[in-house]
Amino acid sequence: MDAQAFGRMVARARKALGLTQRDLALAINTGERFIVDLEAGKPTAQLGKALAAAQAVGIHLVDGRAQS
């Protein structure tokens, strides 16, 4: 999975939960700009934040694969 596919997955899950990008940013204690960039597929070195965002919207990594 590449950064763009991961970002799309986070965006779909966030929207399914009825969350705004701001809501998600607040939930994981980060800035809204990070969520915007993450969902746009911008490669980032901030893997911890990306994983926190995924977990907050119900995406869990299993053996290197994302499951929602």
From TrEMBL:
Name of a matching Pfam family: HTH_3
Annotated PROSITE patterns: HTH_CROC1 (PS50943)
HTH cro/C1-type domain ranges (all copies): 10-42
InterPro entries: Cro/C1-type_HTH, Lambda_DNA-bd_dom_sf
Protein name: HTH cro/C1-type domain-containing protein
Provenance organism: Rhizomicrobium electricum
